[in-house]
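Task card 7
Instruction: Convert sequence to structure tokens.
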Amino acid sequence: MNNNLSEGCRVIRLDVRDNVVVAPEEIAAGSCIDAENVVALQSVPMGHKIATRFIAKGEPVLKYNTVIGFAGEDTPPGTWMHSHNILFDNFVRDYAFSQNYHPTDYLPQDKRATFQGFVRENGKVGTRNYIGVFVVGNCGASVARKIADYFTEERLAEYGNVDGVVPFVHELGCGMEMTGEPMDLLRRTLAGFVRNPNTAAALVVALGCERNNIHGFFEQMGLEESDTLCKLVIQDTGGTRKTIEKGIEDVYAMLPKANSYSRQSVSAEHICIGMQCGGSDGFSGLSANPSLGAAVDILVRHGGTAILSETTEIFGVEHTLTARAVTPAVGQKLVDCINWWLKYNEGRDCQINGRVSPGNNAGGLANVLEKSLGGAKKGGNAPLMAVYKYAEPVTEHGLVFMDTPGYDPVSATGQIAGGANLITFTTGRGSCFGSVPSPCIKLASNTPMYNRMEEDMDINCGVVIDGEKTIQEMGQLIFEKILRVASGEESKSEALGMGENEFVPWPIGVLA
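Output:
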């Protein structure tokens, strides 16, 4: 990225072949942009784009030398370029399956970074040590919350290695199909959280008559009761009060085992991050997302894993990932995901059909093509090693993709169910997102927002826009922050107590 400075207004040129540049701060009409030899014909808001040459009607608009739409009219140099004059349209993409695949140059084991993690019996490593209270259906939600809420900081004081007792409640489990993908997906999500390396022990609560039957759930997902996994059925136990009392008793019985885990030094290859972006703006794809991508490249070289998701938010740039796929079959799986979403959203006023949210639009993103261009930057330059269904266990190391909606809580829930033991979240407009049991690190794309929401933001990537750091320097800083948070350093969302309400399994399917 070249932050062109001149006696006139500063702009950001991302590629020599682009026909637009980005305004790092508001540019008034009539201002000279000496680096591009143009004059702003209209006022240009911060994060928005300016044409640097004549763009004929119907000609592609290029950012990062990638099509983000087509000129809706003949456009002179200096024109403010946004959704009013950049038209969204589909275009032919060359998927070039695996043509740009290059194997990762892994660091030797003795050169890899380490962190302090909780090693489980199956070899998985947690970054946190929680006891979860889960429900198979919404009817058990209040009981689960009351069991978890009983375990205050004071009552857990003698269990210093336990990070907390957390309820995982949701609105599904009844009034839905008893078989098929919706039920399979819900069960896969719940089982994934139970098995997540950040979950030391789990209590699963049911009313007893849910369509998501607790015994069927355990059987289908291969779960077995043990000293760290218990069932509790309200109708069998004798009602609300007795079930809460029994649940508290069960958690107390699991606490000594959970507390027996302590942090020890392990390789960074055990870190698996889920990557999210929300409240994106025109700077997200210039600072926070590519900086996270640089951190991902470092993590992958150390043997770790990064999960890119939000399928509707890579639409239009999926060919940049298929070209890096380890095999054509992996690339085709990604294309199949895109095609499913296109069919699913046919005729609907959804993001994949062009329109981004009002906040994204105000922040400088003209359409989903431009948003996807920035979103995909989170994946860095590593090869794409695998594509997973929502909440499927992630077993491959390196950069992988999980098919999820773009809605952040649903998407992050799928990633954690897949095994993510840490979440990273880039934002330009600002976000208050947090997650448990996997801590969330939030990355701000611009300095003004970081300064407004410093209590919620972990890292300011806006210094890239300000010209104070390079993307590679920020990537190293993010990687070091990942290691520290994985080792127990509290993230901003953890300090604020965020995360319980962000457990949102994907509510796909018909309700009855």
